[in-house]
Amino acid sequence: MATNTFYFYVLECRDGSYYGGYTTDLARRVAEHNTGTGAKYTRVKSRRPVKMIHFEAFSTKSEAMKAEYAFKQLSRKAKEAYLKQT
Hints:
Elements: E1 6-12, E2 18-23, H1 26-35, H2 40-43, E3 51-58, H3 61-73, H4 76-85
Antiparallel strand pairs: 1-2, 1-3
């Protein structure tokens, strides 16, 4: 089944770090991160549990992936500013 919505999302990890990703199913993806089957970054037990603190919807996978990439290029301070302004 094709989906029409792609999401860029930001998780706050237990250690206070941020993780950015993209998905078509936010609830499923958070569950995967919290069970240790998500991204390598969130498999580390000290980073779990994670909580979703931000997401944005896009109509194409490319747009969502570009938003994820742009977020990952930011410094911690810039990430915090981005999250406050959205």
